[in-house]
Every structure is written in structure tokens, then in C-alpha cells.
């Protein structure tokens, strides 16, 4: 509920505060007095675009604040929690427009975005202006009316979750299918490359090892000659080095006790003797292992030729790189097999999600159809009540392809003259008819769900007399369980007010400013009498106004 509206330096408003009642609040005043300015200011804290032309004094910022009671609004408290905004007993929404034109929004003194402000506003206030009747021709609005009456909000959210999951799964399936098509396009070529590498079957470091072995075999004769001579000189010549070294050790041993450094020298010679013996044996082993093998050389050359050809073909330089390519090709070929399984599983998931969405959409459709007859009956009754006895509303629900809102196309059709020629509302209803029709529909929707504070800005355009009286009665009935704020020119509606505010212009110095005040009972009677008969109301008008207020 909007408890208070504070406006400072907006248009021709210097500074005003309006305390609203929790029932039916009526705002009246002469044309041009500033009633629409109030709505303009209010729309700013509901997230509308700000404009520096709204500044009354160009060197002073504009401030609009709305004070709301949210005790019985869990959805609002949840919004504040979700957006990390302070939850207090009183919700204060503030909009500031700086002299530079920069706009800022605050909720409980915490800066917020305009988008957040709009989302919060939708939970706080339903603002209906005269031109908003165009909504009636909008398919989304018409569907929302039916869903509100059917209490479909949770079901719609469930369905939309299922529908989006189905869309996402379908997209993933299509991506897998496209990926498979791309795989298949290159499958034969990848298979050929892999088979070629698999046939050669290179082992780790094979080409490098074969290259080293080829160098060894190609030089085997020279290597064996060098090794044979080395072994011969160490152990088998006329004066073998190993034997000569042994003799030297024996000679020195005879004199080891005569010089303190000799034992160390002898020990080193003994170590050298042992090492040379080991070297001689190792040389012999290596020599015995080396054999010139022409067939082996031929095999290696052929193997290297195949291997180097593959390296050149794939643009790499080592066995490790070619083995990496072989592994990648194996993975690509395996992916073709895996993707078939993935596609099969995703097809099952898509089918299951589609069936869930269809089932929920059918439940939605059934609940919507149940509302057709009651909505037509109730709206047509209210239309008769507001002075449109020949007008009739017809709800048309057709099956459609599955979409974000189910499987229905919903359209409200209208016949203003009992002609049995129902046409879409946007094509045949006049402005006044649209206004009254919107009021009738909103009054029904408000009873089916917890609509926020409802504000009507001259929705009574184009009506008068008994019709205006009945519009007032509908608003009075709506105000039983919610706050209604209505700007009107109709005395019949003003007479229903729980709180009647009068907007007026006054001159202070050389400036004209807009102000507003809450009327007393006697002032209300006078204001309504003036609405009936002019600036100087007649006695009959005063009596008529008194009767309206009393009733």
C-alpha cells in the first residue's frame, strides 16, 4: 500500500506530501491543475525514464519518494532479499534527478538500477492510464488475464522451465547431429590416415633409435678394428699394458716401507690396474656384440624411409609427434562411435522433456478453457452495469504449436451492439468502451489474485451519468480489499471516495505552482457540486453532491 508520496522540485510542483488512505482515494481538480503531473512523478519511482525537463528549478535536484507498507506482501520481501536490499517495516522508494540530468534510484537508501525499480514496482503498484487500454488488444495481456483467473502462475512457471529445458536439450541434440555430420564428412580421410599409421605401427622413439643403430652398423668394421686393437694393447700384445702395470706395482711394493708416499701411489696403481682390466673386458664384450649385418641395414633403411615419409606428410620431426597424431586420429574415430551413443541418449531426453512440457501445456489449456464461460458471463454482466448493455465479450482459445506460454492462442473478441459479429478488441472497441472493459476485467482479476495498489488515471473518459456511477461502485467494491487511487472528472465516482484530494494551482510571487490538499466532508460536497454545475454550484447541485457523498 502506498502510504505517502513526497514530491520536490518536479514540473510546477515546489514541494508536496500526500498521505493516502488504504481504501478508495479520489483525486480531482481543474484541467491543467497538475493531476497528470502527479502521475508523472509517481511513474518515476515506478521505473519510468527520467527527463531534466521535469526540473522546476534548474539548479536544484528533483526528488520523488514513495513510502509503502509491505507487511502482508511476502513476494516483495522475497524480491528485497533476492536483490540484497534491506527489509524494513516501511519500504521507501526514492528517485532523484540531478541538475546534470543524471538519474539515481534508491530502495531503503540502497542504490538500485532502474530495471530493479521496474521489477519492484510491478509488485507494488498497478498503474493504469487512459492510453493503457491498448493493452487489451495485446495477446500477452489477454493470456495473463485468463491465467490470473485460473490461478495458473505456478503452473506457467513450471511449464516454462520444462519448455526451456526441452529447447536447450533440442539445441544440444542438433549440435551433436551437426558434429556427427562434420565427423562423417572427414571420417574416411581420418580412417585412411589412421590405418596408414597403424599399419606402420611405429614404437616410441623408434625412428631415432633406428637412425642410431644404422650409424653403428654402417661404421661397424671401423669400430670393431679400433676395439680389437684396444683389447690387444691392453691384454694380448708382446708387452700388454695390464701386465706391465702389474709389474710396476710389484716393483714398487718392494720399497713401500722406505717412503711414506709410496703406499698411496701403489694403491692408485692397483685401482688403475683393476679399472683397465674391466675396460678390457668391456671392450671385448662390445666387440663381440658388433656384427656387420647387411640385411639388418637394408631393413632399417626401408623402415626409416617409411617413417621419414610419414614425418614429412604430417609436417612433424619426431616419432613422438607422429604417435601424438595417431592418438588424435584414434580419438576422432572413437568420437564418431561415442557421438552415436550421445545422440541416442539425447534423443530420449528430448522426447521425455517434450512429453513433460506437452502434458503440462495440456493441463494449462484445460484450466484456461474452464475460465472462458465464467469470464464471459462476469464481464458481460459488468459491462451492462457500466452502461454497455448491448456489449459482449467472447474469449477465443485455439490450439497452437508449443511455445513459451503453452499450446494456446488466446484472443478476446468484442461485439458492441449485439450484432453477433465478434471482432478482436483492438479493431472494434472505442476509447470509452476500452476503458470500461479494462476496468471490468481488472476488477475480476483483482479478486483472483493479490494485485498491488491499483491506480487509475482518468480511466472513466467518455462516460457519465449512470455508467459513471456504476464505475464508481466497481472501484468502491475493489477498494474493500486493496488500495485504489483514481484521478477522475466524474462527480459520480468522486462521491465514492474514502479520501478526496483536490489538485489546484496557486500563485506565489511571480510563480505558478501546483498543490494538493485533502478535502473535508463539506469541501468534498462543494467540489463535487462544482463538477456537476460549474464554479458557482446551484443549490440543486449542492444537494445532489451531498446525496452522492452520503450514499
From TrEMBL:
One Pfam family this sequence matches: SMC_N
Highest taxon listed in the record's lineage: Bacteria
InterPro entries: DNA_recomb/repair_RecN (IPR004604), P-loop_NTPase (IPR027417), RecF/RecN/SMC_N (IPR003395)
The keyword Coiled coil belongs to this UniProt entry's keyword annotation: yes
Domain RecF/RecN/SMC N-terminal: 1-506
Chain coiled-coil ranges: 193-220
Sorted UniProt keywords: ATP-binding, Coiled coil, DNA damage, DNA repair, Nucleotide-binding
UniProt xrefs under NCBIfam families: recN (TIGR00634)
Similarity section: Belongs to the RecN family.
Function: May be involved in recombinational repair of damaged DNA.
Protein name per UniProt: DNA repair protein RecN
Protein species of origin: Parasediminibacterium paludis
Lineage: Bacteria, Pseudomonadati, Bacteroidota, Chitinophagia, Chitinophagales
Amino acid at each position: 500500500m502506498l502510504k505517502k508520496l513526497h514530491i520536490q522540485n518536479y514540473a510546477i510542483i515546489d514541494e508536496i506530501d500526500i498521505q493516502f488512505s488504504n481504501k478508495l482515494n479520489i483525486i480531482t481538480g481543474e484541467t491543467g491543475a497538475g493531476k497528470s503531473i502527479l502521475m508523472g512523478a509517481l511513474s518515476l519511482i515506478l521505473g519510468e525514464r527520467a527527463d531534466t525537463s521535469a526540473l522546476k528549478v534548474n539548479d536544484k535536484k528533483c526528488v520523488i519518494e514513495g513510502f509503502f507498507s509491505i507487511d502482508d506482501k511476502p513476494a516483495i520481501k522475497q524480491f528485497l532479499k533476492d536483490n540484497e536490499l534491506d527489509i524494513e517495516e516501511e519500504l521507501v522508494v526514492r528517485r532523484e534527478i540531478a541538475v546534470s540530468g543524471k538519474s539515481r534510484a534508491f530502495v531503503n537508501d540502497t542504490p538500485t538500477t532502474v530495471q530493479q525499480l521496474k521489477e519492484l514496482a510491478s509488485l507494488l503498484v498497478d498503474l493504469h492510464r487512459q492510453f493503457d487500454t491498448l493493452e487489451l488488444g495485446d495477446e500477452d495481456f489477454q493470456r495473463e488475464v485468463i491465467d490470473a483467473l485460473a490461478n495458473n502462475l505456478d503452473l506457467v512457471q513450471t511449464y516454462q522451465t520444462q519448455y526451456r529445458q526441452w529447447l536447450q536439450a533440442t539445441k544440444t541434440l542438433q549440435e551433436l547431429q551437426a558434429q556427427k555430420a562434420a565427423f562423417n564428412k572427414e571420417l574416411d580421410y581420418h580412417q585412411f590416415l589412421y590405418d596408414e599409421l597403424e599399419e606402420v605401427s611405429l614404437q616410441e622413439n623408434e625412428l631415432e633409435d633406428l637412425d642410431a643403430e644404422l650409424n653403428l652398423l654402417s661404421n661397424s668394421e671401423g669400430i670393431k678394428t679400433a676395439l680389437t686393437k684396444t683389447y690387444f694393447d691392453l691384454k694380448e700384445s708382446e708387452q700388454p699394458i695390464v701386465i706391465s702395470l702389474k709389474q710396476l706395482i710389484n716393483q714398487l711394493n718392494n720399497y713401500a716401507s722406505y717412503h711414506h708416499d709410496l703406499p698411496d701411489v701403489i694403491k692408485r696403481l692397483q685401482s688403475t690396474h683393476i679399472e683397465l682390466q674391466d675396460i678390457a673386458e668391456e671392450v671385448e664384450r662390445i666387440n663381440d656384440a658388433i656384427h656387420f649385418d647387411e640385411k639388418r641395414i637394408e631393413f632399417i633403411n626401408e623402415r626409416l624411409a617409411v617413417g621419414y615419409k610419414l614425418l614429412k606428410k604430417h609436417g612433424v620431426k619426431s616419432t613422438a609427434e607422429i604417435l601424438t597424431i595417431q592418438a588424435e586420429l584414434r580419438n576422432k574415430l572413437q568420437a564418431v562411435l561415442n557421438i552415436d551413443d550421445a545422440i541416442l541418449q539425447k534423443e530420449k531426453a528430448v522426447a521425455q522433456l517434450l512429453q513433460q512440457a506437452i502434458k503440462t501445456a495440456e493441463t494449462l489449456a484445460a484450466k484456461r478453457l474452464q475460465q472462458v464461460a465464467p469470464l464471459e458471463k462476469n464481464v458481460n454482466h459488468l459491462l451492462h452495469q457500466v452502461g454497455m448493455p448491448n456489449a459482449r465479450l467472447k474469449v477465443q482459445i485455439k490450439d497452437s504449436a508449443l511455445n513459451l506460454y503453452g499450446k494456446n492462442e488466446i484472443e478476446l473478441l468484442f461485439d458492441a451492439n449485439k450484432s453477433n459479429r465478434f471482432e478482436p478488441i483492438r479493431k472494434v472497441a472505442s476509447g470509452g468502451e476500452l476503458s470500461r472493459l479494462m476496468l471490468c476485467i481488472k476488477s475480476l482479476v483483482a479478486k483472483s489474485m493479490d494485485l498491488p495498489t491499483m491506480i487509475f488515471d482518468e480511466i472513466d473518459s467518455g462516460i457519465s451519468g449512470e455508467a459513471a456511477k456504476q464505475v464508481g461502485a466497481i472501484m468502491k467494491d475493489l477498494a474493500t480489499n486493496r488500495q485504489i487511487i483514481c484521478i477522475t472528472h466524474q462527480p459520480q465516482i468522486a462521491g465514492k471516495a474514502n479520501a478526496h484530494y483536490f489538485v489546484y494551482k496557486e500563485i506565489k510571487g511571480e510563480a505558478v505552482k501546483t498543490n494538493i490538499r485533502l478535502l473535508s466532508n463539506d469541501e468534498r460536497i462543494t467540489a463535487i457540486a462544482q463538477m456537476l454545475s460549474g464554479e458557482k454550484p446551484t443549490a440543486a447541485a449542492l444537494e445532489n453532491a451531498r446525496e452522492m457523498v452520503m450514499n
